[in-house]
Amino acid sequence: MEDTPGVNEQKESSRMKVFLVMAGMAMAILAAVLAFSKVDSAYAIDQTGCLSCHSNYKMTKANGQGQQVSLYVAEEALQASAHRYIDCTTCHTTKPHEVPTPLTKLSLAQKCGSCHDYQFQVHRESVHGQQLLRGNLDVATCVDCHSPTGNPHSVIRVLEAQAPAYKKNQAQTCGKCHGNEELMSRYGIVEKVYESYMRSFHGKATRLGSSDLSKLDKASCINCHGTHDIKSVSDPVARVAGLENLARTCESCHPGAGMEFAKGFPGHEEASPKHLPAVYYVGRFFVWLTAGVLAFGAMMVTLELTRLIPINIKVKPRKKARPREK
Amino acid sequence: MAVAAKAKSQPIQGTIVGDQVVRFDAHQRAQHIIMLSSFLVLALTGLPLKYADLGVSQWWIGFWGGIENTRLFHRLFAAVMAADCVYHAVYVVYSTRVLKRPFPYWMIPSVKDVRDMLGDMLYFFRIREARPKFDRFNYKEKFDYWAIFWGMPVMGGTGLVLTFPVVAARLLPGWIVPLSLEVHSDEALLAVGWILLVHWFFALRSLLSRPVFPLNSAMFSGTVPLERYRHEHPLEYERIVEQAKGEQP
User: CA A87, A88, A91: angle at the middle one, nearest 5?
Assistant: First the structure.
């Protein structure tokens, strides 16, 4: 019976069917796995195998003062990092376990400077860098602007859209400190720089503009204040100090702007009777004009409604009808 | 010549055609259509900038592919609106000088408009029982017309300053740039507010008053039924009916 060709054929075809179904399912599962798994070809180079221990979030050690210091390196952050193809030992030396940790703000900046020397030197001359040398730990150093978490392992390239130093994110990044009223009051910076920038045309254009790299030609903080070389506004060499410098800064985007153009620039300060009085008073006039005209309009509409609605509701004309033309 | 002849054969404002009164000729209707469409585009591409921090503004600008594109449309339709104003001015000169039509004296604000407004107030507050008798254009319609003569130079002038800030700061004091930004944005809000609240209300009020198409369509069709005209513009109605009687004895 087994050798009957008809039965055999039947068996063969049913086996074939099972195989096809299994293969189909396997393909579907594989496709699903591929679709739902995070496929990231960018794996950090870890030639020395540091992550085999340091990817453990429980890993700590006691430092000189007896405090517990985390030695954990977040792998996910590392994969998105600009430095994922650089081996740990580049920054941590070939004898990482002998380096005193944790690094200070200054020694961390110096560490970045061992490759990015030019930027480090320029930063050292900036208001941030000068304060850092005096031991002020409030200041922004490399990782404060280049890493979303302030963690040196997750520095993101400036041209990537999620980078804190990407054009569209710059105001927010500076705002982390410069939008902090309490912190700013310590340095006599009273203007709400973040809010006023966002209210300005530059801020709105940046916020509403396309993320396209070629369309990031709007001014953000850095276009007027500089990047690594940011100087205090009270420093006469600052790009925004004095009309002459300011005019030159305006001209870097608005060719031929000149002093008069710079004079009209309100900066971060709102118009007031002292600052750009013409803008302030005309602005006030328009607020009252708008309110007055719209109030007049609303009154006319409301009054007209009081006469219109009852007439419509009225089904039968009353005996003593009003002498209104119909 | 052919154009002039054709224009001459068009129904003139304030004449009776069938059971309708001609209120606007083809040019006036075209001017209105151009004005309203450019106004809508300008409002829709400009307001999100005024309220840039709202999510809906960001969504809307993103929908257009960023501010670069909405800005292009804003400037394009600003030019259309300016051209419409030129069209209107040319039209007024052409119709009075070439077609020898009467000068539109009925658009000139007069003491009667002030009296009509006060009379309307008395009517609304039920002190007077009858509404003032309006001529071809009542005081509200004149206000709407002349408001453009204020709005256009303000919006156009400040808009030009914002488009060419460097040139503006060379010719005028520097504060003209932030001033223009302030004025352009305030006046825009005033214009949009007025259109939404008042202009549309009076265009749609026939919805509340009598069973006609839910819009005062005169601005689009150009004509108003005689019966409605008697009601809304009694002074002119009486005059044209008298005139019609005199013409066909």
Answer: 105
Q: Do B190 and A201 touch (CB under 8 A)?
A: no
Q: pLDDT tens, position by position, for chain B (249 residues)?
A: 444 444 445 667 777 777 888 888 889 999 999 999 999 999 999 999 999 989 999 999 999 989 999 999 999 999 999 999 999 999 999 999 998 888 888 899 999 999 999 998 898 888 888 888 888 888 988 999 999 999 999 999 999 999 999 999 999 999 999 999 999 999 999 999 999 999 988 887 766 665 555 567 778 878 888 877 887 888 888 888 887 777 665
A243 and A218 Cβ atoms separated by less than 8 Å: no
Mean pLDDT, residues A186-215: 88
What is the DSSP annotation of A78-115? Answer: HHTSTTTTS-HHHHH-S-GGGS-SSPPHHHHHHHHHTT
Q: CA-to-CA distance for A279 and A216, rounded, in angstroms? A: 29
Q: Are A279 and B182 in contact (CB under 8 A)?
A: yes
Quote the tokens at residue B212.
């006609």
SS3 A69: strand
Give A280 to chain B, closest Cα distance, Å.
8
Nearest chain B Cα to A281, which residue? B179
Cβ contact, residue pair B177, A297, below 8 Å = no
Rounded to the nearest 5°, which phi and psi values hold at A68?
-85, 125
What is the C-alpha to C-alpha distance for residues A233 and A239, in angstroms, rounded to an integer? 8
**List of residues 6+ apart from B190 with CB closer than 8 A:** A286, A289, A290, A293, A294, B151
Helix segments in chain B, DSSP class H: 2-9, 26-50, 55-63, 67-93, 111-124, 139-163, 165-171, 176-194, 200-204, 206-209, 218-221, 226-232, 234-247
| Interchain CB distance below 8 Å, A278 and B179 | yes
Say yes or no: B123 contacts chain A, CB-CB below 8 A: yes
CA nearest B84: which of B149, B38, B150? B38
**A234 CB near a chain B CB, below 8 Å?**
no
Q: Tell me the C-alpha to C-alpha distance, in Å, between residue B172 and each of A278, B163, B206.
A: 13, 15, 48
pLDDT tens-digit profile of A125-144?
Answer: 999 999 999 999 999 999 99
Burial state string for A56-72 with b = 16 or more CB within 10 A and e = fewer than 16: eeeeeeeeeeeeeeebe
Quote the distance between the C-alpha of residue B231 and its chain's center: 22
Q: What is the ipTM of this complex?
A: 0.84
Structure tokens at A323: 């002498």
B190, A307: Cβ pair inside 8 Å? Answer: no
**Per the CB < 8 Å rule, is A261 touching B67?**
no
Q: In chain A, what are the domain boundaries? A: 1-37, 104-276, 277-302
State whether B67 and A312 contact (CB < 8 Å): no
Question: A212 in contact with B at a CB cutoff of 8 Å?
Answer: yes
**Mutation for testing the A interface, residue in B53, B74, B127, B179 having most A CBs under 10 Å:** B179
pLDDT, tens only, A10-38: 777 788 888 889 999 999 988 887 776 65
Position of tokens 């189909």?
A: A24
CB contact, 8 Å: A283 with chain B? yes
Quote the CA–CA distance of A288 and A294 in Å, as a whole number.
10
